[in-house]
Amino acid sequence: MSIERRPDHRRPDPRDPRDRPRRLEVDEESVRKSLAGLVLTIVELLRQLMERQALRRVDQGGVSDEQIEKLGLTLMALEKNMDELREHFGLTEDDLNLDLGPLGPLLPRD
């Protein structure tokens, strides 16, 4: 039984640069920044969702003035912490706002 090879299937030649394994050149700093950006993007998405949910609850009523005050202070503190983390990692708001192509940006800005 003989196996026919298609013309585009050739044996690897170790002398041919196209057949050598490709290595991804990355530096530790870019990996750290990329990972931090991904994590902060997820945290920012959750922060915005929590903020919207809190505003809905306030609009619906049933939340005391004291709870509204605590909620506002907590959300402001969280936003401040996010600003500090972005600054620490050298990221901007736009760095965290992934482009989802035809769906638009991940994080809508008010």
TrEMBL record:
Report residue spans for region: Disordered. Answer: 1-27
Coiled coil located at which positions?
68-95
Instruction: State any GO CC term.
Output: gas vesicle
Q: Does the keyword section mention Cell wall biogenesis/degradation?
A: no
Location(s), subcellular: Gas vesicle
What keywords are assigned to this protein? Coiled coil, Gas vesicle
Return the InterPro entries for the record. Answer: GvpK
Describe the family membership recorded for this protein in Swiss-Prot or TrEMBL.
Answer: Belongs to the gas vesicle GvpK family.
Protein name, entry field: Gas vesicle protein K
